[in-house]
Amino acid sequence: MKKLNIPSLEITKANFIKHAKSYEDFNEDLCDKFFANDAIVLQEKLLEYDELMQSSYLERNWTKSYLSTRAPLAIASNFCFKLPKQYDLNDFICTFSNLIIAYDEGKLEYKTARGDEIFPRQFDILKGGARIPKPLSDEFRLNYKNTRFFSVLHNNNLYKVDICKNTGLKNNFKDDFKPISFAHLSLLNSDDASKLYQKYEDCNPFFEVIENSRFNICIINKDFNSINEEVHYMQYHAPCYHYKTLNFIYNEKNKNIYINAEHSFLDGGTIAYILEYIDTNLTSPNELKEPYFVEQYFDDEYIKSIQEGLKAYNNLSFNANFSFDLAQDFGFSKDFILQAAIVNASKNAYKKYVCQYEAVDMRDYDYGRTECVRAISLELQAALKSFNKDDFVKANNEHKTRIKDCKKACGIDRHLLGLKTLIPCIENKYAKEFFNSKMYKNTCETIVSTSSLGKSNFVDVFYFHPVCENGIGVSYAYYEGKCYFTLTYFDENILNGFKDGLTEFFDKFNNL
Prior knowledge:
Blueprint: E1 2-3, H1 9-20, H2 28-36, H3 38-52, H4 59-67, H5 73-76, E2 79-82, H6 89-104, E3 129-132, E4 139-142, E5 149-154, E6 157-162, E7 167-169, H7 190-200, H8 205-212, E8 216-220, H9 227-237, E9 247-251, E10 257-261, H10 268-280, E11 287-289, E12 292-294, H11 300-311, E13 318-325, H12 334-350, E14 356-361, E15 365-366, E16 370-373, H13 378-386, H14 389-407, H15 413-421, H16 431-435, H17 438-444, E17 448-451, E18 463-464, E19 472-479, E20 482-489, H18 492-509
Parallel strand pairs: 1-15, 5-8, 7-11, 8-9, 14-17, 17-19
Antiparallel strand pairs: 2-10, 2-18, 3-4, 5-6, 6-12, 9-10, 13-20, 14-16, 19-20
Helix pairs in contact: 12-18, 13-14
């Protein structure tokens, strides 16, 4: 695989200026001083640093940016969504197990159903992986023990189940329900969780089993009054051990299956491939495997610590979802239309343009992961002011240019992050002033975080916690003439403003 390239300073400066001019507080003088002085030295340091990296210059700092977060994982890292289709649980388990066996035997074809090539490194996660709570910064641990089992959490009891071809799970669980288990560690902040983990890890096979399982399924049996209530529970409260990367939740009451995935090593595209494989190759088991019960050993002090930690588990976002008809696309890309709608909605909610993030896949590169498209451009601002088709043509072209730049690893965010990381290695003249400026923060510090896996038989719009205390999280997709949005938010005024802004956009756009 190609190593992620580092753009030239000339390219990044030109792109940064183009982005920064869309906001207030653009400071051309500071921009010139930074790129003519400190940026040159930082670029030299970054190129030297990259030479010594085994893959991407981003890899260590990118991963640490996830692992050093201290908030509970549902707030800091995980994303969650309901699978659009309901599957028999054993059919789902059987097909996922067959996928893992195909991966182990080197028989997995790394292509989507449309024939798009997928680079195999991202599928290391099929070995089994988990985040490990540690002081200061967590650890991510991939399983290299060649295990062939998955784990099940049922009534807060843990079970180990062998993976064999065309096999499922025998429903042979204990009747007793544990109100608290080690799964609840992941609802605490990571500093508190790491202390409990360190204290109880040695005498508990729970951690060895769940960390090295190929995937985990949490089985619950719970009624909900609405889909929003169910989503909120699955995102924040389900005792599914949020530290586990490939983590599914099955509700026996309504047969819904959710994924709640830890994000430090796993991107959405990998999940989309796994779910596409399951949907396309769905197989019923020939045999059901016995679950092996894993005892948990903890005391009253652990129970008290969890109860105290849960009292502080707050500041959780609310969630909402919307859909709008798209009468015609006028030849514009669907992604551009939906991003433009989100920009209009966010401006209506915040009463000004605020920094917006869109993830763009860079998996053509070794450990490329994602670059960040900043959707707000002068061209889009003009189009949203006029709702004139010619203005939207210009905005659509600029959006496509930015996406192409990002796919070539020539976006602004990741390169600037690499330069910023190396400031301690130089004598600072303008670097700290540049990265602390309102200009940089307006352009690169996200308030509206957006992402999309599309919408189909196997994936859907999803939910993730906002990235800052006054922010929102938006997932979006186009499917069969409709545009779908989910929103996570804190302030009801933001919700109402966002919804009104979406309504205004589609009323005007459909009548261009």
